[in-house]
Amino acid sequence: MATAPASSPVATPEWEARQQLAACYRVFDMLGWSEMIYNHITLKVPGEEGAFLINPFGLHFSEVTASSLVKIDIDGNVLGDSAYPVNRAGFVQHAVFHRHLPDAHCIMHTHTTAGMAVSALEGGLRPINFYACNFAGQIAYHDFEGVTVRSEEGERLVRNMGSKRIMFLRNHGMLVMGRTLPEAFVKHWALQRACEIQLATLSMGTPLEVAPEVVAVHQRDLHMAQVPGGPGAADFAAMVRLVDRRDRSWRD
User: Fold this and answer.
1) CB count, 10 Å around CB of 189?
2) Could you please report the per-residue DSSP string of 36-64?
3) In whole angstroms, what is the distance from residue 236 CA to residue 241 CA?
4) What are phi and psi of 137, to 5 degrees?
5) Facing residues of 108 across strands?
């Protein structure tokens, strides 16, 4: 990632975070995970306690750039100048987790067709495919309470999340967290694939569930199939290269 332009008032660590997050929005759009001007990916600002970056409300994922991202604190105050508002539904949901979960460096919330479908399915995600086995026993669930704009729902969100870092918001969508943005990205990608394959499988008949002891071996050995550099690092870098071939405006 490039450093900030000489005229930019943004410190280099923040600019790098802005570019990484802007790239992620473009990657999500490329993969078909946009939802009009809605949904959110947030990223903590390095070295600034309680500050995180969020997409400007009104821009499509394909329009987000490093400089257009809005920096806010966990109380909803905009830090610095921005010509754009912030979606309250995004702030309320993400801020409560950024406040209470120190390891939730990056949070992704989407309304993909497959993710919303599985969130509305009794039993949720089942261990019936390779990717679903990655997540067996690691997914939290939260009942639908309407659009997430009331801060009092936050206590229940945090309680239901517990020690897990992936949640299905029932009848709503997916929520994925990571210690880094690439880690959250690769988890979201695999979860999305698991949902897509589950829907395809259920459309054909009765699925075969993987035995718990096999799931345990699968999860134990997953790290041996990772590229060095940290979870998701190589995967995300590859996606950014694809985005760059289409349009590099996200870097500005």
Assistant:
1) 20
2) TTB-EEEEEPTT-TTEEEEPPTT--GGG-
3) 9
4) 80, 5
5) 41, 176
d(Cα 13, Cα 1) in Å, to the nearest integer? 11
Tell me the CA distances in angstroms from 163 to 9, 102, 139, 157, one per residue in order. 38, 12, 10, 12
Mind listing the pLDDT tens digit for each residue in 2-35? 555 555 556 699 999 999 999 999 999 999 999 9
Please state whether beta strands 166-169 and 173-178 pair in parallel, antiparallel, or not at all (unpaired): antiparallel
Residue 234's CB is within 10 A of a number of other CB atoms, namely 15
Residue 199: phi and psi, rounded to 5, are -60, -40
User: What are the structure tokens assigned to 105, written together?
Assistant: 């460096």
State pLDDT tens for residues 83-136.
898 988 777 889 999 999 999 999 999 999 999 999 999 999 999 999 999 999
**3-state DSSP call for residue 147?**
coil
Strand partners, 139: 166
Strand, helix or coil for residue 54 = strand
Q: Are 89 and 150 in contact (CB under 8 A)?
A: no
Alpha helices in the chain (DSSP H): 12-30, 88-100, 113-119, 130-135, 153-161, 181-202, 212-221, 233-246
Residue 203 identity (one-letter amino acid): S
Q: CA 55 to CA 79: how far, in whole Å?
A: 14
Distance from the Cα of residue 74 to its chain's centroid: 18
Dihedral over Cα of 113, 147, 145, 94: its sign: positive
What tokens does 216 get?
């345990």
Q: How many CB atoms lie within 10 A of CB 224?
A: 6
